[in-house]
Each structure stands twice: as structure tokens, then as C-alpha cells.
């Protein structure tokens, strides 16, 4: 057992293997029942999972903003999450970090026979994607995942999971042939949403709203667009334009709550004209 005073914990000069070992040892020290950090000791898989998701999103955010100076740190935060879960798993007797690394290495080699095996590398990206899906299907079969939708993680962001579910269903022919049918379905769902708003309760309204979102994801898929990425971009655009509104109001000595919709809408249009 490494002690908190062990010099290896403070070695910033070592190469990859040394640094992986160092991080794992730091986590083991933090989780030590006698000398560790009280907060870290109290955590479990369920309590840490939200942080794991948050760190993954922060990596994506740094990439979206092309904040390369921040990305190194964000990737480190995400790596810590892997080590954290592996440490808890080792304590529970499930597996350890070595097993995690060996498993993913073996998976990558098995899924890339055109790189690590005898298969030809002369393939299109589309053919490689098809082969990848065949390998993944075989893996799901080995796990006794018989259903088409089995194995699509429940913890994914809802838009991402909707896209994955739709792709799985489309592989077996459960899909509209063109965007025309999808747009028609959106119109139908919009009418049902309005009817629910006017005549039904909150549960039915939420259900109809969910149906609308699900079909919107499907339209994006048919158009070759990722709903999650498109919504992130829309969020960014909204943030930029609203920031413009705040800045312009501040020039007049005002805050948004001291303005009105007409004035702010005019500033919003000015932001659009400015290319924000």
C-alpha cells in the first residue's frame, strides 16, 4: 500500500506508465479508510457517475470552443474519473485498473482487424463502419443481448440515446424512407402537442412533447445532422446574442430586467445582423 508521503506520488518527470501508476496510487491514498480524504471515502459508483458525465461534457466543451490550453486539464479530469471507478471496483472485488486497460486494448485490437490483423486496409470509411457494426453485433450476441435495442446505454444524454435507438431500428428496416415522411410526422406531433396543451393534463402534455423531440432527432438523422451537436451550437448562438443584448443595454445604463421584449427583440435582430 502506497503511503501519502511516498516520493513516487510527487514524481512529475516519469513517462506514461509511471504517471498512470502514480494517478492510481494517488486515488488509492484518497480512498484509504484510515488516512484518506473523508469525502472521497464516502463516495460510491452512483454518487461519482454524475461527475463522470460532467467531466465528459467539459471535455466536449473545450473542444467546441477550441480551447486547447484547457483541454489537457479537462482530459486529466476525465482520466481521474476512470481511475476513481476502477479503484472502487477493486475495493469491491469486481476488477481493477489493469483489467480496464487490458479490456479496452483487447477490444480495440479485435475491432480493427484491418490494422492489427490480416484483413486488407484498402476499405472505404463506409465499409469499415459496416464491419465495425458487424463486430459490435457479435459482441452483443456474446452478451446475450438479443433485442435490436439492447445495450443502448440508459445513461446517455436523451438526444444522443434517441439517435442511437433510431439508428439501431433503421438497420432492420424500421425507418421512414425519406425526410418527407419525417416532416409529415412532425406536423402530426405538433398538432397532438397543441391538443394536449388545450385538453389534457401535464403527464399527457409531457408525453407529446417527448414524442416531438424524438421525431426532431429523427429528422436530423435523415438530414445527416447530430441533434446534440446542433442544439449545442444553438445554445452557443443564443448565449452570444443575449450577451450582445446585455452589453448594449449596459451602454444605456440598463439591465435586461429594466428593458422590455420589444427593445430586447430589436437588439437581438441587431446581433443577428452583426453575425453573432
Automatic annotation (TrEMBL):
The lineage of its organism: Bacteria, Pseudomonadati, Pseudomonadota, Alphaproteobacteria, Rhodobacterales. Its EC number is 3.6.1.8. Residues 43-116 form the NTP pyrophosphohydrolase MazG-like domain. It comes from Rhodobacter maris. It comes from the Bacteria. One of its GO terms (molecular function) is ATP diphosphatase activity. Belongs to the nucleoside triphosphate pyrophosphohydrolase family. Pfam families: MazG, PRA-PH. GO terms for biological process: dATP catabolic process; dGTP catabolic process; dTTP catabolic process; dUTP catabolic process; response to stress; TTP catabolic process; UTP catabolic process. This is Nucleoside triphosphate pyrophosphohydrolase. It catalyses: ATP + H2O = AMP + diphosphate + H(+). SUPFAM superfamilies: all-alpha NTP pyrophosphatases.
Amino acid at each position: 500500500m502506497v503511503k501519502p508521503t511516498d516520493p513516487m506520488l510527487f514524481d512529475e518527470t516519469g513517462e506514461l506508465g509511471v504517471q498512470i501508476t502514480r494517478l492510481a496510487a494517488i486515488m488509492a491514498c484518497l480512498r484509504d479508510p484510515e488516512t484518506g480524504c473523508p469525502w472521497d471515502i464516502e463516495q460510491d459508483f452512483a454518487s461519482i457517475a454524475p461527475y463522470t458525465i460532467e467531466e465528459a461534457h467539459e471535455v466536449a466543451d473545450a473542444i467546441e470552443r477550441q480551447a486547447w490550453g484547457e483541454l489537457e486539464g479537462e482530459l486529466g479530469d476525465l482520466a481521474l474519473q476512470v481511475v476513481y471507478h476502477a479503484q472502487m471496483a477493486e475495493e469491491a472485488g469486481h476488477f481493477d485498473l489493469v483489467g480496464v486497460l487490458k479490456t479496452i486494448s483487447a477490444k480495440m485490437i479485435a475491432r480493427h482487424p484491418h490494422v492489427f490483423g490480416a484483413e486488407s486496409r484498402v476499405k472505404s470509411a463506409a465499409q469499415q463502419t459496416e464491419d465495425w457494426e458487424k463486430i459490435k453485433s457479435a459482441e452483443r450476441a456474446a452478451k446475450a443481448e438479443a433485442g435490436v435495442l439492447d445495450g443502448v446505454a440508459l445513461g446517455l444524454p436523451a438526444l444522443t440515446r434517441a439517435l442511437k435507438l433510431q439508428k439501431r431500428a433503421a438497420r432492420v428496416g424500421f425507418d421512414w424512407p425519406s425526410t418527407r415522411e419525417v416532416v409529415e410526422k412532425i406536423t402530426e406531433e405538433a398538432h397532438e402537442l397543441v391538443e394536449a396543451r388545450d385538453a389534457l393534463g401535464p403527464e399527457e402534455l409531457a408525453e407529446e412533447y417527448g414524442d416531438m423531440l424524438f421525431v426532431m432527432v429523427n429528422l436530423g438523422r435523415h438530414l445527416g445532422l447530430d441533434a446534440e451537436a446542433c442544439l449545442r451550437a444553438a445554445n452557443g448562438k443564443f448565449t452570444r446574442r443575449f450577451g450582445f443584448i446585455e452589453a448594449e443595454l449596459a451602454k444605456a445604463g440598463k439591465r435586461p430586467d429594466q428593458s422590455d421584449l420589444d427593445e430586447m427583440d430589436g437588439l437581438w435582430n441587431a446581433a443577428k445582423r452583426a453575425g453573432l
